[in-house]
Amino acid sequence: MSKPIMTKATAVWLVDNTTISFRQIADFCGLHELEVQGIADGDVAAGVKGFDPVANNQLTAEEITRAENDPAHKLRLKFNAAAQGEEKRRGPRYTPLSKRQDRPNAILWLVKFHPELADSQIAKLVGTTKPTITSIRERTHWNIANMQPVDPVALGLCKQTELDAAVQKAAEKKVAEGAAMSDDERRKLLSTEQSLGGDTEPRIPTAIEGLETFTLSGDEDEDDTPRDKYDADSLFNLPSGDEDDEDEDEDDRH
Description:
mainly alpha; 0% strand; 14 helices; elongated; 254 residues; DUF1013 domain-containing protein; TrcR
């Protein structure tokens, strides 16, 4: 059931200006019956000015009269076509004051490790504005030199499930647009669970495919002539010392 705006001030007005029971007022305003009784006794909402629900288009005089005559009647909020859908409208995510200084670091992390995320998605995740995201993405932010990328989940600015959902949505959008993705980009678009459960074996780049079977142990040349076979001893054996002795003897004779 929908509740009126300024519930406590509305309850103060109803207590002061009508004979509706405490239970009826409590049900209409979403309060406890003892709280409404405390308002009547002056122990609760002291100094709160009453808010007229009739003048503010929340109740009709006929509805109040009917509730006064029938203690079992439940007050119904007046239908207001202009207010339809207002409860579904959401503004930027609220960020506590203690964590607002960490927000630029979280934005830098998202821009660096998830460039596929749109500015609107980043703004929704960490509760920021698009100009701030643009300045960090283009590295024109006034404090960019002192920023360090930090995971927004670790900072408590968003939940891991929310981040995974945003990344998955960005992946589906990119695939729908038909954009080609590299292996690195595709791995970034996976959720945390998928990334941890993936294959860690490195892949051979396509540019050098086939080199894994390349060897130097051929026995024949291209013209099918047999090659001379060498062993290590034949390649590294030094000449015997007899030739050197003969050369020295000839030098002594001269």
